[in-house]
Model the fold of this input.
Amino acid sequence: MKNILLILLIAIFGVIQNASAQAPENVNYQAIARDTAGNPLANQALTVKLSILKGTALGPITWQETHSVTSNSFGQYRIRLGAGTSTGLGSSLSFSVINWGTSSYFLRTEINPGTGFINMGTDPLSSVPYALFSKSTSALPNGTVNGQVLSWNGTSWVPASICSLLTQYYRDADGDGFGNAAVSAASCFQPSGYVLNSSDCNDNNSSINPSIAEICNTIDDNCDGLVDNGAPTLTDINNCGTCFNVCPVRPNSTVTCVAGLCSFICTSGFANCNSIATDGCEISLLSNPNNCGTCGNVCASVANSTTICSGGVCSIICNAGFGNCDGNNINGCETSITTTTNCGSCGIVCPARANATTTCSGGICSYTCNTGFADCNANSADGCEISLLSNTSNCGACGNVCTVVANASSVCVSGVCTLICNSGFANCNGSFADGCEVVLSSNSSNCNACGTVCPTRSNATTTCTAGVCSFTCLTGFSNCDGNNANGCETSITTITNCGGCGTVCPTRANATTTCSGGICSFNCNSGFADCNGTSSDGCEIALLTNINNCGACGNSCPTVANATSTCVAGVCSFTCNSGFANCNGSNADGCEINLLSNTNNCGACGSVCPTRTNATSVCVSGACSIVCNSGFGNCDGNNTNGCEISLLTDKNNCGTCGHICPGAQVCTAGVCN
Done:
C-alpha cells in the first residue's frame, strides 16, 4: 500500500492548460497490488473500486467507479481514474462534473482479488490537473498563468510556485500527533491527516509513540528502540524489581512490593505465627484455641466440653448431653441435659402426658404411648388420646379406619376390624373388603346358608328364591312330565310340542309344517305361495302357472294386443290369436301383425307379397294375390306375369278378358268399333 500511495501522488499531479484547450476527463493512475504479507499479486485478475470522498477521509462519496484489470508480473496495474464503470453511488452524475474548486477531496482504494473487496486506505488528493478545474471556468485563478502547477491549500487552488520550497508531511493514521516516516507527501500546505513529525514507530496504535511512558509489555512503547526500558518496578506486584516478576500470593494476606522486594501484610484476624513466608498468615487468631487472640495463647481444657476460640477469646462448647447449668466455666459442663428435669437445656422439665410415659431423647422432651394407646392427632398436649383397641377410626393403628362395607356394621375388637352382617346377608368368602357379600335368599351357591349349593337340572337354570332352591327352564325346554329330578326334559320347539307341552302344529296345503321360536308355522313347497296371507288354506297359489301371481305373489301377467296371456314355469308369456303374429319380437305391442292381410307378412312373418306388372299386390286370407290396375286384366290367370293384357286396346280381350271384336273391328278404349 505504501508504493500505491507514492505512485498515486505523482500520477495525479498536473499543470495549468490553456482555458480554451479541450479538458481531459480522467487521470492516469498506477499502483502495485500486494497481499497481507506484502507480496505482489502477480498476473492476478482484480476488480479495483475507487471512491472520491469530499471534505475528509470519512466524507460523503462524490463519485465511485470500478475497473477490471490484470496485474503484471510485478503486481503492477494501470487504470485511468474517471474512465471506469459507475457504481451509481455519489452526488455527481459523472466524473466530468465534479467541482474540484469547492473543497478538498480524498481517494479511497478497494481491491477485490476474487474473495471480496479489501480497503487499501484513503489518501488526500493534494493536487489535480488544473484542466479538470479550469474546464468549468473561463478565467484562471488570480496570480496564475499557463503552465503553472496548482495546489489545494485547504480552501482554494493557488499557484504551487508561491512557496519557495515544498514541505514533506507524514501520514498520521492513528491521530496521535506523530507521523509514519514510510508514508509521506510533499506539499506547500499541510494535507489533512498528515503531520510534520515522522517519529511514530506504529502508526496504527495511538498508544505507541515517543510521548508514551514505557511499561512492562515487551513492546517499545516510546519508540526509542528499546523494549520495557525504564518501566516502574519498585511497587508493582506484577513487575517487582524486574519486569514480569510476579509477587506470589500468600494465604490470608495482601501481597506488596516495597523497594522492588516482594512481601505481604496479614489480613485482620490472621497471623504468621510460624514465621514461614510460604504458607502466609496460616493462623486465625479469632478461632485457633492454641493461638487465641495472639500467637501462643492456648485455651485450657475443662470437663465435658470442647475448648474453642471465638472472636479471639477462649470459651467452651459443652459436649453432647451436657450443660454448664451453674454458669461456671472452671468446672466445665457439669450437668447432664438428657434427663426429664434438664432435657436439652438447663432447667427444661418434660411435662406429663395422658396414657404415656415421659422421656428425654437427644435433648428433646418426648413420650412413649402406653400399650393400646396412640397419639393419632400428633398433638403432644393431649398425649396418647386414642384407644387403638376399640376406636373404629383408628383400629389397631392410627388412621386405620374400619370402613363401612356392604350389608354389615363395622366394629373394632381388640384392635381388629370386625363385621356384623345385616339380617339375610352373610360373609361367605371371609373377606372384610366386600363385607357381607352374599344374599342368602337368592344365591344358588349359598341358598339360605353359606355353602348350600342348589343342584343342577337338565336344560334349566338353577335359582334360589326366598332361601329355597328351584330352577327355571331354558328357552325352548319345559318340564312336561312335572318331575323336578330330570329337569326340563322336553323340547318345546317341535311340531308336537310347539311353544308348550302338547301343543301340536296343524298340517297346511302345499306346505311343510314347522315350529320356530315356540310358534307353529309352515314353509310353502317349491312352486307354491301363501299369497292371501291366510294360514288356514296353506299355500293356495301355484306360482308356476297362475297368471295373476306368476313367479311371485301379486305378479300379474299383462294383457297384450291380439294374444292370450300365459304363465309358464313362473314366467309371464302370451299366445298369439289365430291369424296374428309377434313379428318384431317385442312383447310390449303383443301380436302386432295380421298375417291374413299384411302384404309384408302374408301368412307368415317376413313373407312379402311380390310386385306384379300392371297390378297391386294384396294379401287375402294369408295368401298373396293381385288386383289389376284399371284397363288391364290377368286373362291367362297366371299371377306371376301380372295383368298382362290391356283391355282398352286388345281386340281379343276388349273391355274384358275373352271378348273378341268381330271381323275387321278394332278395340278402342275397351270398345269394339
In short: The first strand starts at residue 27 and ends at 32. The longest helix spans residues 2-11. The radius of gyration is 70 Å. DSSP finds two helices and 50 strands in the chain.
